[in-house]
Amino acid sequence: MRVMCSFILTGLCAALIACTDDAGKTTTSETQGDGLRIVSLSPAGSKILIDLGLEEAIVGRHNYDQAVNADVPPVGEQGSIDYEKLLTIAPTHVILQTDSQSMPARLTQIAGETGFEIVNLTRTLTLDDVQRATRQLEDRFAPNAGLADRLIAAIEPRTLDRSSWGTVLIAMHTSPTVDVLGPGSAHQESIERLGYTPAVTEGKPFMPMDAEDVLAMDPGVIVLVMPRARDAKPAPMDWTPSPEDLGSLDGLGLRAVESGRVVLIDDPLALLPSTAFIGVSAELERRLGALGPLGSQHDDTGTRTTEAGPG
Hints:
Mean pLDDT: 87
Number of strands: 14
Structural class: alpha/beta
Number of helices: 11
Order of helices and strands: HEEEHEEEHEHEHHEEHEEHEHHEH
Largest sheet: 6 strands, mixed
Helix content: 25-40%
Number of domains: 2
CATH class of the largest domain: Alpha Beta
């Protein structure tokens, strides 16, 4: 999972027949991906391509890509591309995100020699980054698919003021430190756009914190973003955190824990800033909204009611 976090740290279409399933995925005509051989060195780019209906066109992946089927051969990562394997695969396109790094000179050289196109998403960290990358790949490979518009609708700011819910802390690990998703992360931006007040207002997108720091904040809600394995079943609707889930937060007397205001987001790609946020944002909105304002569904002794569960 920690590897995944580092990435929180892709137009050949004569005709498009598109529809949307419950996960926001676009299905296209059988001919859309014909001739495309895409090596995606961006896990976020891979997810966007899959949601554009181009999964079959992905013939190479990032070493730690969890979006693409594991049968697709890994071709390395930004700083260590396996160029021999890349040449063997013979892609038509290579998708990557340079972030703060420069474009690999060897990749540029090989592209010029063999003729494949490089599509650089630059970075995918914030919601604006994800929106731009989605529009970039849609315009290049599936014009007018509508995926970018669905993403915009999913993440657009809501007009409701949810400050009475208390502050919201988002964590991806709880032991040995509490690893928080903070300012500048797509996850914190999501709760802000939904009208909630973040517990952490200063710092970096990813920050380790001591349990004592969290206790001092005493957030009204804790969101645990803990992706399950791709082949695992989602957590049940009546999920409650175990001591292992809470890690160093267990036994501190946090009001969010004591009053049942701990929410789990376990989508397999929940930590990946990408079009996965179409589903992640909807789940956040549903689960946080079900809690209600502080004190509205819990008694003063901290007994959790069934209404206050994450479902």
